[in-house]
Amino acid sequence: MSKTSRRRLRQSRPKPARDEPLAAAKTGLRNAVYDLIGDRPEYLAGSIRTLDSRYTQLRDSLYGSRGAGGHHSQPSSLLPCWADALKLLGYIDRRAARFEHCWPPRCANCPHWRYLTARHVEHPTVRRYRQVLLQPWRPQDASTLQTIAAIVAGYAKAVDDLFAPKPVYLRGERCPRCGQRDTRVKTDDGQTVTRPALMVTGEGITLCNACHDVFPSLEFLGDLLRCAR
To answer: Which residues of 1-10 are buried (b: 16+ CB within 10 A; e: fewer)?
Structure first.
């Protein structure tokens, strides 16, 4: 094959569109942002109702309900709010302020920006996250958008983890399989602590943290431990 033929063959091959990675990154960013600040539909008994966004749920929980089962990390006599929610809210607000510093509003006369600023019911942090979606991103910004999407998606998951049902530890009971009463486990922040071996997760799964045996049900474990229902 001659050089001319090879050159024509290379020129005839379809070239990947430069906007494809950017479009995928913008879609991922949009999904991550609305997972955090967008209203959530809930399907229950054939009907649909709208729940508040994860960010609104987090902000409302500071002085209201403190997670699943009313759990909180500090006694209410020492701290008048939910410490874990306050810490996570600070991370989200500071990141939104950093986004606004990096990408300020494009134009005060922009109809999209007038729409956002007119919605006074929204918190400034919510408007800042929406503002990121209005930026004129370039094809070379795809990796930046993927990084931002990963950060925002991490915040949404952190909110879900914060409100997830907490595990219940069966103190003083030995595992019927390995006989251990306590075991050393690692917490989410990397610390090693001593916890009871038997645990019931928020999903109702009973297991042993020492031998990692899983029991079919809490009633079955109670029969093994000869506990009353």
So the answer is: eeeeeeeeee
